[in-house]
Design the sequence.
């Protein structure tokens, strides 16, 4: 019956049956001569008992299904999705259990998919040449890969150890950088030779707790390869520049030798010597450019008046001062920063910007000082922006690629940073950010 009637229908049928018993039995007992009050009492008692029994029989599949659902949901709470329910005969309860089973199957597939992804991610991380450390807020290492174990603990497990106890077993340069939360390139030496290591620190919140991710990347091979490529490029540039000057000088010297015996060719001889002098001057400027890049001294920082800085560079390169000069005195090496600003203003003019469109603005805040050169020249493509600060990279036919690289070296030596970006409407903006003096 439960297969064809709903729960409401079964309860209504059973209630009608119990009512019929409660009403019909007293009539039957009265017909055989029993006292009417006793007949009605017996009928009411049997009707109530029948109603309770039948309603309980009707609700039994519901209570059984609810208990099964309760157990299944408790398993869900504990992360166990392996339990499936047997569908009862009732249509409504069958739909509920089928829905429960579908959700369980979906969660099982999701868990298997997540497990496979975690397994793949762990395999990739463990096979990565980069050393990875995940540290919780109490400085315990909760995750590491094989490269980290090999670098920091001779291949022994390090998960669960305190970071401070692990560092003494590591190269002292690397240990010092990790302990001081330093980012950048560090060199160290071990029994296998000299190495270069890039260290990166980052923090994030996981499960409402702060975690620290330390990434250590061996850069020795990459830097060696890059160094070789740079030397090859330097040799090619120097050879090209020397050939472009020495070949004409040699030819002109031979022509001058022949013109010495011809007094009437005095004008031509003077022209020959002028060209030779011009080529020699070009070679001198070329070699001085390389020398200034290679022999850049450490900055001698001192308080600098912004007004005096502007007055020193204004007669040498034309530009427009944008905004008001900060009231706080600057702090940097004035000679090096003047050289960088003059170089950048010159580049803006050579990029096609007029003097009126070359703007210099200066800003300061609690962290540092920012000098911005903006122009309306031709700007740079994305590819050029990525390489513009590299030594010996130039888009000019006669350029040696040292101007922006020298500016970068100056800013880096000050502990600052340089940023290039194209402007809306055309042109380029170069930002030099310099920190304040470190407090003792």
Sequence:
């Amino acid at each position: 019956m439960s297969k064809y009637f709903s729960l409401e229908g079964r309860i209504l049928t059973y209630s009608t049956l119990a009512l019929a018993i409660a009403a019909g039995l007293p009539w039957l007992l009265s017909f055989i001569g029993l006292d009417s009050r006793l007949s009605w009492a017996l009928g009411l008692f049997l009707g109530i008992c029948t109603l309770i029994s039948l309603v309980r029989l009707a609700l039994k599949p519901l209570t059984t299904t609810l208990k099964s659902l309760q157990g299944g949901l408790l398993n869900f709470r504990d992360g166990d999705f392996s339990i499936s329910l047997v569908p009862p005969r009732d249509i409504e309860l069958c739909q509920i259990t089928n829905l429960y089973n579908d959700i369980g199957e979906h969660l099982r597939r999701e868990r298997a998919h997540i497990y496979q992804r975690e397994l793949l991610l762990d395999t990739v991380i463990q096979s990565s040449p980069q050393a990875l450390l995940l540290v919780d807020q109490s400085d315990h290492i909760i995750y590491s890969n094989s490269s980290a174990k090999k670098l920091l603990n001779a291949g022994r497990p390090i998960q669960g150890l305190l970071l401070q106890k692990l560092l003494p077993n590591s190269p002292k340069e690397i240990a010092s950088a990790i302990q001081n939360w330093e980012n950048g390139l560090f060199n160290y030496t071990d029994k296998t030779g000299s190495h270069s290591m890039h260290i990166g620190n980052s923090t994030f919140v996981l499960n409402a707790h702060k975690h620290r991710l330390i990434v250590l990347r061996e850069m020795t091979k990459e830097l060696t390869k890059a160094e070789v490529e740079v030397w090859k490029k330097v040799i090619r540039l120097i050879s090209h520049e020397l050939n472009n000057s020495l070949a004409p000088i040699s030819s002109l010297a031979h022509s001058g030798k022949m013109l010495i015996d011809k007094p009437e060719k005095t004008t031509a001889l003077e022209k020959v010597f002028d060209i030779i002098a011009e080529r020699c001057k070009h070679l001198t400027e070329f070699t001085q450019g390389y020398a200034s890049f290679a022999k850049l001294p450490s900055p001698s920082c001192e308080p600098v008046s912004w007004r005096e800085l502007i007055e020193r560079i204004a007669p040498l390169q034309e530009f427009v001062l944008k905004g008001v000069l900060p009231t706080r005195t600057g702090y940097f090496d004035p000679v090096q920063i003047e050289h960088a600003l003059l170089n950048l203003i010159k580049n803006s003019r050579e990029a096609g910007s007029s003097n009126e469109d070359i703007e210099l603005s200066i800003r300061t805040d609690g962290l540092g000082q920012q000098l911005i050169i903006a122009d309306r020249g031709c700007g740079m493509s994305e590819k050029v922006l990525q390489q513009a600060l590299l030594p010996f990279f130039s888009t000019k036919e006669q350029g040696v690629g040292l101007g922006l690289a020298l500016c970068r070296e100056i800013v880096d030596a000050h502990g600052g940073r340089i940023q290039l970006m194209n402007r809306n409407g055309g042109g380029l903006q170069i930002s030099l950010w310099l920190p304040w003096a470190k407090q003792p």
